[in-house]
Amino acid sequence: MTMHKLSNQDLIAVLIGARKAKRFYRTELVSLLFAEEGSEDYVQELAAARELVRRSLEETLCKGNVLSSPSVVADYLKVILNGREHEVFVTLFLDAQHRLIAAEELFRGTLSQTSVYPREVVKRSLAVNAAAVIFAHNHPSGVAEPSNSDVMLTNALKQALALVDVKVLDHFVVAGTVTMSMAERGMV
Predict the structure, then answer these.
(1) Measured in whole angstroms, how far is the alpha carbon of residue 7 from the centre of its chain?
(2) Using one digit for the tens of pLDDT, what is the confidence trace for 118-151?
(3) Shared domain check, 164 and 82
(4) Rounded mean pLDDT of 181-187?
(5) Are residues 86 and 167 in the same domain?
(6) What is the pTM of this model?
(7) Half-sphere exposure of residue 94, counting CA atoms within 13 Å on the CB side?
(8) Same-domain check for residues 29 and 115
């Protein structure tokens, strides 16, 4: 079977069965793939599929320089941050060759803000022996533009981490299926 030729509904049917796929799939994959676990029978199967995608992307980031595959980084961040109803601040800790050591949710906030503590980011960076980091957080509002607070936070984190020789490579803002790289905009 050639998977890339199947419709979205047919692919979902492979995972959860044709009857469930017809019943639950309407027009948008995002709403199905990022539904809250436990809300319907099909959600567990789709959550497993999403987790496989996340692990596949993570394997790629662990094997090679993340700077050589920014689209994989963006896809990975979308998978781990999409569908969250509150702001979450994530850090990708990288080794000296910019391979992923760990990806961790360090702070969780409210619908519109998260408190991030530079001291805790520095402590965790040292604990995992990171040489570099990439930050990411989501905007549940759906707007991927960084706020002035986001820019100020990035600069504060960059200064704090520079004291312990940890380089800040980027800070992504994720809003639904859209990512915005602050490094690409010259903000890091």
Answers:
(1) 26
(2) 999 999 999 999 999 999 999 988 888 999 999 9
(3) yes
(4) 92
(5) yes
(6) 0.81
(7) 23
(8) no
**Residue 82: which of 140, 127, 27 has the closest Cα?**
140
- What's the mean pLDDT when you consider all of the chain? 86
CA distance 79 to 10: 22
Q: Using the predicted structure, report yes or no on whether residue 10 has a pLDDT greater than 70.
A: yes
Residue 156 pLDDT > 90, yes or no?
Answer: yes
Does residue 44 sit in the same domain as residue 71? no
Same-domain status, 33 and 101: no
Number of Cβ atoms within 10 Å of the Cβ of 186: 6
* 55 within some domain: no
User: Strand 88-94 vs strand 178-181: parallel, antiparallel, or unpaired?
Assistant: unpaired
Using alpha carbons, select from 161, 155, 164, 159 the residue that is nearest to residue 182. 155
